[in-house]
Amino acid sequence: MRGLRGRPVLVTGAASGIGEALCTRLAEEGAAIALLDRDRERLTALTDTLARGGARVIALHADVGNEDAVRGAVAEAAGALDGLGGVVTCAGIFRQGDRQLLADVDLETFERTLRVNLIGTFLAVKYALPHVVRHGGGGAVVTIASTAGLRGHGFGSGYTASKGGVISLTRLVAEQYGPHGVRANCICPGATDTPMTGGVYRQPERVEQMRRAIPLGRVALPHEIGDVAAFLLSDDAAHVTGQVLAVDGGSTAR
């Protein structure tokens, strides 16, 4: 993809799932990558793997819900990589306590979900944006929301609210920072087989259910979301901003 070679990019939630797949693709494209995650063991393992393959990488251990940690991590990334030309916010959680009727969801679950999914996105983008603006043309913000933020899934009060917030926040960034040459787009994955879903989509009954529910007949793999994020970071998407793209095998078309 055009424009990714040498571009410094910060990825949150980098150590697993969509974040891991994206970092692997960015390394293949020759980008310089700051990997941010709170799972130190997985973070170290992935960073070492990418470095052995010749990628320019830095590992940042931080919780995206902690402002001081995010501020420091972004500054460290920009210093180590000579700036930032993009940021992708893959960090997210879905708590089992959120999988029930709204009246039964406890406040701590709701607040923690928003803290990671929405506030974590806000903090990463907030502290990365000045660096992205200074980097010059081609700067990009890519957020990861969910089709839950588009139409709801019938469960997940905190998750749905947080992802809807990410969508709106991304549109705001596109409007505010377009004049500064920064593009901002949001990806809304549908059902995706990641560590967060715990292998549920590989169960035979769920495979059949998804075959019937999704026009393409299957759930997404992490790299299929990561590849779209890489495209949106690249110069191949130079006139794409303010967009909310469902990568869901066609499920929201129904």
**How many individual helices?**
8
Please state the second-level CATH architecture.
Answer: 3-Layer(aba) Sandwich
Instruction: Give the overall pLDDT as a whole number.
Output: 95
Q: Helicity range of the residues? A: 40-55%
CATH topology description: Rossmann fold
Please name the fourth-level CATH homologous superfamily: NAD(P)-binding Rossmann-like Domain
Tell me about the biggest sheet? Answer: 7 strands, parallel
Instruction: Estimate the strand proportion.
Output: 5-15%
N-to-C CA distance? 32 Å
Please report the total strand number as a whole number. 7
In CATH, what is the class?
Answer: Alpha Beta
Regions with little confidence, pLDDT below 50 for 5+ residues: none
Written description of the protein model:
By secondary structure, the protein is α/β, with parallel strands linked by helices. The protein has one domain (8-253): Rossmann fold (3-Layer(aba) Sandwich). The protein has helices at residues 17-28, 40-52, 67-81, 107-135, 148-151, 157-177, 204-213, 222-233; strands at residues 8-12, 32-37, 56-61, 86-89, 140-144, 183-189, 244-247. Helix 1 links the parallel strand 1 (8-12) and strand 2.
